[in-house]
Each structure stands twice: as C-alpha cells, then as structure tokens.
Design goal:
Strands 14, 15, 16, 17, 18 and 19 form a six-stranded antiparallel β-sheet that branches. Strands 3-2-6-1-7 form a five-stranded mixed β-sheet, with helices on one face. Strands 10-11-12 form a three-stranded antiparallel β-sheet, with helices on one face. It is of the alpha+beta class. The longest helix is centred in the C-terminal third of the chain and has 31 residues. It contains 14 helices and 20 strands. α1 packs across α3. 41% of the residues lie in helices and 21% in strands. It has three domains: 239 residues, no CATH class; 105 residues, Pdz3 Domain (Roll), CATH 2.30.42; 90 residues, PDZ domain (Pdz3 Domain), CATH 2.30.42.10.
C-alpha cells in the first residue's frame, strides 16, 4: 500500500465510524439516555484530545489522562464497608446530585448529562459510551447496582432497539446519500452490452465452460444482462447456470459448472500468489489483475514511452498489434497475456501500420510490458452518459446503493468456502482497493461502499456487534424477559474474541501475502 492509500483508508474509516456512533448517540439522546463519552479512536488510560461543557463553559484537554466516572463505592449500611458481588468485585453507585455539586468547580465529573467528546490514540474505530449499557467500553460490574432512569437498561425494549439500530441506519442512509451526491455531481457513464458489436473476450476458465471468443451473451437464466458486471454477478456470484450466446449468427446454449465460482476464486488466489512473487523480486513491479471477461477490442498504441522496449523497436502511435511470436492476438487482453508469458524474453511483435503488416523485435522486461499506452474502450464505443438533477439523484442513488448491497450479500456466501476464506483480507486489502493517486470520485465511491459493508456486517447476529444486540432485544420483546447484564457481558466477551480471531486471521492473510 502507498501512503496515499493509507491516508484514504484512515480518513474513510474514521468518517464512517464517527457517523455510525452518531447514529447511536442521536437515538440515545432522543430517549433521554446519557451518553458519557463519544470518541474517535480508542483511548486506554489517556486521550490525545478531549472536551466537555462543565459549569457552562467548554473545557479542553490535550494529551491528558482519562476522567474517572462520576460514581462512588456502594457501602453496606450495617458494616460501612464497600459491597462486593459474587466474584469479589466492588459495586458502585452513581454520585448523588449533592455529591456531584460538592465536587470542585471545573471538575469534569460535574454536569453528567453533558457528553465528553474526544480523540483517542489507538487509531482503530471509535465508540459511544452509553450510560447503563454493557458494551466494549464497560462490564456489568462497572454499572451502578440499581438502574437509573437516565440509563439505557431502564428504557423500553423498542427504544433500546432503535438506539442499537441507529448506527446501522446511519451508515446505510449515508451510503445512499453519497451515491446520490456522486450521481448529481458527476453523472453516470455506462456501456451496455447491446453496443458491443465485436462480442466479448473470455478468459480460459470461461472457455472451459464452452464460451468462444466474440460470443455475444443473449440471456442468463432467461434474463438479458445489460452490462459486463451483470454477467459476472450472475454466473460467478449468484451461480446462475443456463447461458444463451449468439455465435456466428446462431444461438448456442451453454450450461455452467456448479463450482465455477469457487474455481474462479481459486484461480484468482493462484494468480495473486504469482503476482506477489514477481512484486517481491522487483519492487517497481505493477501487479496485474486476472481478467475474467472483457471487451474484445484491438490493441492500438495511443502513445509510446521513451527509452522502453517499444520505443527502441520503432513502434509508433496508431500501430495495431495483432500477434506475439506468431501467436494471433486480436484483442487487447490477449496481447497483455502474451507479453506477460514472455517476460524477460525477446519477442517478435506483429502489427499493422497504415494497413501494412510489419514486425518488430523487442526485449520484454520482467514486468511483461513493452512501454506503451493503448487506446481505451471508449475510443471504439461511446458510453451512455446520464446527468441527474438534484431530485432525480436521490432515487437513483438509492437504486444504485441497494443493487450494490445486494451484490455484496450474494458474494458473502463465497466467504464460507476454502477459496473464499483464503482471499479474505484485512486493512491492507481494503486499503489496496483505494487508488494509488488521489481521486475524489474513487474516494467517495469506496467510502460509500465501505459504509454499506459496515451496515451489513454490523447487522449480522454476532455477539458484540449491533446485530447481536438486536437479536437479544427481539428475544426479549418476544419473551417479555430482559437478559441479565451478567449474561450480556459473557455473550459480548464471546463475540469480542470471535471478532478478534477474525481480525487476526484477515490481517494475518495480508501479512502472509506481503512476505510469501
């Protein structure tokens, strides 16, 4: 990952965590529940920055130790000694109004209704500490012995449910709004398959399924795909199997294999291993992505880079490459694959210049490139461009975001396969999804996509995630019995360690891929 990618990742995740916690905060305050702390990043022992309104004035602190909660030990009325639970933990009670007012003026424990806002020093996530709630910030023994009216646990189940759902709702709505704003500002470009007269390029894994180069896809399980992404979605992610193509003027029916999705993932993982090995040998190597399906357009040189293979071989702008070492390469992807197969080797490039066939002898370096840029697909096909007005962009953003979420949910089933588990990644994999050069469109698109993922993942019924709380609250609403705080703590601890294990595995995959 480059520094630009790390910066984009940090900004995007920080923004999404803050708005997620603001969702919890908003519903908590709506139901008169105290929010003790609101932090971006975690702050064990001390904070980089914190502020709170105390005695009518905003107070600020930098690089300061954390403030103790406004609570005191619960004393036994007979012995006068601190009360303890079954495990020997001291029980606490909230300070009375008189005790709070007796604190020195300016003490941060005064005005407990006001929230302490801050920035921690551990740059992973953040939190919203809601009074009377067992979560990642407090255990059951940290709560006062008796529920207070301003606590989360004192509210009705439906109110607690909305407080929990607040973060998920905000992330989901924010993603749809971001997509809508992008459509309003940039519009939308699309290249429908109906415009592609030359048919499509099919990778070897699809040729094994019966596809032939330049086949035109008419339908998949009876539905006509509109774009290339629809084809990939249908046959790889959704596992649809019946495909009808137009080949040499005749309709041909194909039947996809049941394991096509997992075979493709295995191929991607194998390709990724090979590309990583090349990148370790040459730090300047640019990893190539495996192309499953692409546009069947010729490789026409748009510019030649000085002091590279094509430059020394005499190739010029406008030359159309049609073969590598005598092997026909009628489309762009085929040229790229052939060059990659002849890395660190001398090759003969066949090309047309002004309808005249010529050949050039080049030495291809270890990156499998000859030092040219090629004409883009838009040089052959003009994409449809749609501009959206303000009110039009809102439903368009909702439609776009909902379809993207549906696609991600369909992909999620592949995670539970061996090939899918191998492809799991952590922060490094997410960061690599951002562009290496700053681009506002790509940044906001990735941020909106991550917001959808955050909403979906938090909705899963996993303990310690919002979805785990939602499941328990629904059980409470059905049975009419609230789950004891001690059980909530145990359930959260199980979920917490499961999540830690998943994080270690995913980020461990990133580390392994970086060195092996």
């Amino acid at each position: 990952m480059t520094a630009i990618q790390w910066i984009q990742l940090l900004i995007a995740l920080s923004f999404l965590v803050v708005i997620h916690e603001l969702g919890h905060f908003t519903f908590a305050r709506l139901f008169n529940v105290r929010v003790e702390k609101f932090y971006m990043f975690f702050n064990p022992r001390f904070s980089l920055f914190r502020m709170k309104k105390v005695d009518g004035k905003w107070r600020f602190a930098f690089f300061a130790p954390n403030v103790e909660p406004a609570a005191t030990e619960l004393l036994d009325p007979v012995t006068g000694q601190p009360k303890k639970d079954d495990k020997g933990n001291v029980l606490y009670r909230p300070m009375t109004d008189e005790e709070i007012q007796a604190l020195p003026e300016g003490d941060w424990r005064r005005d407990p209704d006001n929230t302490e806002w801050g920035i921690g020093w551990v740059p992973f996530g953040g939190y919203c500490s809601i009074a009377g709630m067992v979560d990642e910030t407090k255990a059951a023994t940290d709560l006062p012995s008796e529920p207070q009216p301003w606590e989360y646990r004192s509210k009705q189940a439906w109110q607690r449910l909305l407080i929990i759902l607040g973060g998920i709702l905000v992330n989901f709505i924010a993603a749809l709004l971001m997509f809508g704003a992008m459509l309003y500002h940039w519009g939308e470009d699309s290249l429908p398959l109906s415009k592609i007269d030359s048919g499509l390029y099919y990778s070897p894994v699809l040729e094994e399924e019966g596809f032939r180069q330049q086949d035109k896809i008419l339908s998949i399980d009876g539905t006509e795909p509109q774009y290339i992404s629809d084809v990939v979605e249908a046959i790889i992610i959704e596992g649809k199997r019946d495909v009808v193509v137009l080949r040499n003027g005749q309709e041909v029916s194909l039947r996809m294999s049941e394991d096509l999705g997992t075979r493709y993932l295995a191929l991607m993982n194998d390709n990724d291993r090979k590309e990583r090995a090349k990148a370790r040998q040459d730090k300047s190597y640019r990893k190539r992505q495996y192309v499953l399906l692409g546009y069947y357009v010729p490789f026409v040189i748009d510019s030649v880079v000085e002091n590279h293979a094509a430059y020394y071989g005499g190739l010029l702008k406008g030359d159309s490459v049609v073969s590598v070492n005598g092997e026909p390469t009628p489309c762009t992807v085929m040229v790229q694959n052939a060059l990659a197969a002849h890395s660190c080797d001398s090759v003969t490039i066949g090309f047309y210049r002004d309808t005249v066939y010529q050949e050039a002898h080049l030495f291809i370096g270890d990156q499998g490139l000859m030092g040219v840029t090629m004409k883009p697909v838009t040089a052959y096909y003009t994409p449809d461009h749609t501009d959206y007005g303000f009110w039009e962009s809102i439903p368009a953003g909702i439609h776009y975001g909902w379809n993207l979420l549906a696609s991600y949910v369909h992909q999620f089933r592949l995670v539970f396969t061996r090939e899918g588990a191998e492809s799991l990644g952590g922060f490094g994999a997410i960061g690599n999804m951002f562009p290496k050069l700053w681009d506002w469109y790509s940044f906001w698109h990735m941020t909106a996509f991550l917001s959808l993922i955050l909403a979906f993942m938090n909705f899963l019924p996993i303990p310690a995630l919002d979805g785990g709380y939602v499941l328990l609250l629904l059980l409470e609403m059905i049975t009419g019995k609230q789950i004891p705080d001690k059980w909530l703590e145990k359930i959260n601890n199980i979920g917490f360690w499961l999540l830690i294990a998943l994080l270690i595995y995913a980020n461990g995959n990133d580390i392994f891929k970086a060195f092996f």
